[in-house]
Amino acid sequence: MLEKIFLLLCFSSALANQLCKPDASDGYKVRISLKTALGDDAYVWNENEMFFFRSTLAFAMRTHVSGQRFEVSNIVVCNETPRVSFWFVVTQPQNLSQLIDKEHVEEAIRKSRSRINSAFLLTDNTLEFIGIQPTLAAPVEPVTPPWLIVFGVVMGAIAAGIIVYMVSTVVRKKRKKNEKTNGDDTDDETRVKTIESGRAADGVYNLSFADDERL
Amino acid sequence: MKLQLPNPDLEDRILSYEQLDRLEEEEAESRPKWDNKAQYMLTCVGFCVGLGNVWRFPYLCQSHGGGAFMIPFLILLVLEGIPLLHLEFAIGQRIRRGGLVLWSTIHPYLTGIGVASMCVSLTISLYYNTILAWIMWYFFNSFQEPLPWSHCPMNANLTGYTSECARSSTVDYFWYRETLNTTPRIEEDGGLQWWILLCHICAWSVLYLCIIRGIETTGKAVYVTSTLPYVVLTIFLIRGLTLKGSLNGVKFLFTPQISELANPKTWLDAGAQVFYSFSLAFGGLISFSSYNSVHNNCEQDAVIISIINGFTSVFSATVIYTIIGFRATEKFDNCLSGNILTLINTFDLAEGNVTESNYKDTVIHFNQTHPEVIQGLDLENCDLNTFLSEGVEGTGLAFIVFTEAITKMPISPLWSVLFFIMLFCLGLSSMFGNIEGVIVPLQDLKIFPKSWPKEAVTGVTCILCCLVGLLFVQGSGNYWLSLFDTYGGSIPLLVVAFCEMFSVVYIYGIDRFNDDIKFMIGHKPNFFWQASWRVISPFIMLFILVFYFITEISEQLLYKVWDPESENFPTLEDKQYPAWVYVVIVVLAGVPSLAIPVIALGKCLWSRKSEKVRLNIGAQLHN
ipTM higher than 0.95? Predict the structure, then answer.
């Protein structure tokens, strides 16, 4: 009895070895970069982590392939390297010698990608499934482009400034006009004074006439 | 025997010393005046210190032998820049007019110099404000995290990034596609780009607000626009020095290669840089100086402003290269990490086995054991000096290289906002001088009726320039801008500067000029000024002019285009200009340069004709 169990185990592991090999048609290569992702806080990749990984994959398969109860033993791993990379294949729960199709495996992994990543504190770049491209996040487009808002603010300030200047010019001119009409009497006296002082000296060079001649 | 061309009736056209002193006392002048000396100095500093100090000088410095470039730069600064500056300040302060009236006062035939200055100032004003519009666009886009030039947009069916962006880089794509929307040829105009049009109108509005009442408003604006760049540069210097790899950049910039001094192009570029950096021959500096009081010490001003200009060039070069050093080190580290990752992925080595220090040995080892695999990997050659030499100039530096560096710094939007405010202030303060060089001659030509207030004159000028500047808002605007910059702003300025020097020294008379300066500042200019005004500076100007002319004529006229369909994309492709562009070039460079002799000849013939008519009438009356 014991021998039979022993033979069966040997047989199944041999079968599993045959199923899982590098470049298997229904398998995927996984590459994990712990040091890049976590730096000094990186944990060591050992058997327990591998067990965790296989159970995560089994979870993904259970959730997305309807009706079948996958176990950790259905995820077969081989060809581990110090890089931390390995190949895996998924066998059917009922028939250990039959593999699940590549497309189903890919679909399951794609859908649970974020859960798998967060289980290991990794990202799409540091936990790679070679052959399965990560789906890019859809861009968030705000309703109004932010630059238009800043443009509006700046343009408003400039327009306000120009209007203020125009208004102050008009006010200044009006004030001058008022002063002129009020101060007409005092102007005559000052005009007499300048003529007297002008006669004594040689006269100030009148610039306004010079322009016409010079050009 | 001093050379002096005949100049009759000069005394009748200029104010005598007594008249000048009386003007000063009675303040009878109706001309605008500076509120205080600081405003005048800041305006001149702002005009001289411009975008060229930030994005032309560092490139020249680095490409012509680093620290060794300082030698020709400083020598030519002293022999060419300072004398010309002093000359412009002194003549403006003495004659107390700017623009055309100044030159026609010195001699009626010389009005052409004023016209040429005006044409050049107009040409440059048109396109310079478009650069400000681009800076504003980047400034508006800096108020978001992450910055829009740090990631590529997705393509139509959201499967990946747009192909143009994926093949070049995020910053290249943002500049050529999302900002300029550039066409592959200058003939294709691509239509007006509405977002740049908005920024264009905004830039002209800001300029109008600052020059609305002439130096009354400009004088207040320069308190901000001339001082803010220095504050920002200091902040960037402190930030830059704390970044990794910044000292690599500074070392690369200043490492001297004395052999470059033997290359004549180094001296030529140094001379041209000094000349253009001082914004001479635009007419703006003469105009600003004419608003000064008569006894202002223009000699001291010239020396101070030259020192500030030179210092700013070196300072900004240092700041720029700390940031470029940081960017180059980042790129180098990324390149190396990429190669290391490829290696450990291919050979399934543990992470951390291959580091920067043993990378080379590892490659050699694997090249011996698996040579075909190593060849197949096609590992990039990572060289820090290559990345450092990617230092570009002009718009490429500001909008591609520097923006890329900013995206890698923490709190990128803050640095982006600061950088573009600094560029905007640098450009705006230069625009004040450019526009002054346009408006004052226009007023002298009496194009605007006298009844119009100053606000209307500046307003109409700004609106007209804005409309003509729409040429640069098109898809092909970038190509037009570099065309105007290369041909409209180079040769005519050299011609005008040479004529200015010649006119003041030999037509106005160096003796009279020396006496004027003695009257204004109290002592005669010493031997250095005499030698440089009479011989050294004109000779240098002539030399640079002739060489520039020869190089422009002999070179094939090519321009660089961004063409996504070209083979070498993303490298810019060289294309030849179409035939009709040559006409544009001749007009841009030829009209201002030829205005001087043509107008001189025209006036000469006209005065001879009117002299003959007068003699005839006189003879008839006598009979």
Answer: no
